[in-house]
Automatic annotation (TrEMBL):
Organism: Tothia fuscella
InterPro entries reported for this sequence: DUF34/NIF3_sf (IPR036069), N-reg_PII/ATP_PRibTrfase_C (IPR015867)
Superkingdom of origin organism: Eukaryota
Protein name, entry field: ATP phosphoribosyltransferase
Amino acid sequence: MSLPTRYKLIFRVPPSALSKCKEAIFAAGAGRYPGAGQYTEVCFQTTGTGQFRPGDSANPNIGKVGVLESVEEVMVETLCVGKDVAMKAVEALKAAHPYEEVGYEVLKLENF
């Protein structure tokens, strides 16, 4: 039996936009486990400090051009079953996220 390809979506977001971003990715199908338990809206999140320095042509949501900024951010990890779900979740994340450049990763997972 062939299992669907699974992906892990990882992103960072300021706490003020956390709920909006999670709602968007879950509505796109992220966070659903394919097992008998039918779990939905599953994620893991941790709080930490992010840093960035906006370049000359940036229009930063937080901070000022040329100034190194450190901000509290929440890192969220969730499962996406199928490439189409991963792509829709990233699209939804970008639309909901307040940053000009959204920090995210998509990792292809192995099925064992």
